[in-house]
């Protein structure tokens, strides 16, 4: 999954928001939190921003690649 999201988000140059899931409210919030904290599919913490938003009758999870911290 992690490789798939990278292939989807990084060709856009990174920093572009994309819908990565449509879910019910609670799972959408939880999924966004897991992505942000690096606890979803072994995604490193800090490489993605994620939010959940209600759009009509569905809840969407948006994520964007922001890269890891530079050393």
Question: In a nutshell, what does this entry contain?
Answer:
The chain has 2 helices and 3 strands; from the N terminus they run H-E-H-E-E. It is an alpha+beta fold. Strands 1-3-2 form a 3-stranded antiparallel beta sheet.
Strand ordering within the main sheet: 1-3-2
Straight-line distance between termini: 26 Å
Total count of helical runs of at least 4 residues: 2
Structural class: alpha+beta
Please state the average pLDDT score: 78
Radius of gyration: 12 Å
Contiguous runs where pLDDT drops below 50 for at least 5 residues: none
Q: Provide the β-strand percentage band.
A: 25-35%
Helix content: 25-40%
Q: Based on DSSP secondary structure assignment, what is the total number of beta strands?
A: 3
Major β-sheet, in short?
3 strands, antiparallel
Q: Return the string of H and E elements.
A: HEHEE
Coarse morphology: flat
Please provide a written account of the structure.
The chain is of the alpha+beta class and about 70 residues long. The chain is built from two helices and three strands. The protein has helices at about 1-10, 25-35; strands at about 20-25, 50-55, 60-65. The chain has a three-stranded antiparallel sheet. It is flat. The mean pLDDT is about 80.
């Amino acid at each position: 999954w992690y490789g798939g999201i990278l292939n989807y988000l990084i060709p856009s140059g990174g920093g572009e928001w994309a819908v990565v899931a449509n879910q019910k409210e609670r799972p959408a919030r939880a999924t966004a939190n897991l992505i942000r904290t690096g606890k979803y599919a072994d995604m490193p913490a800090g490489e993605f921003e994620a939010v959940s938003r209600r759009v009509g009758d569905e809840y969407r999870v948006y994520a964007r690649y922001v890269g890891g911290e530079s050393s």
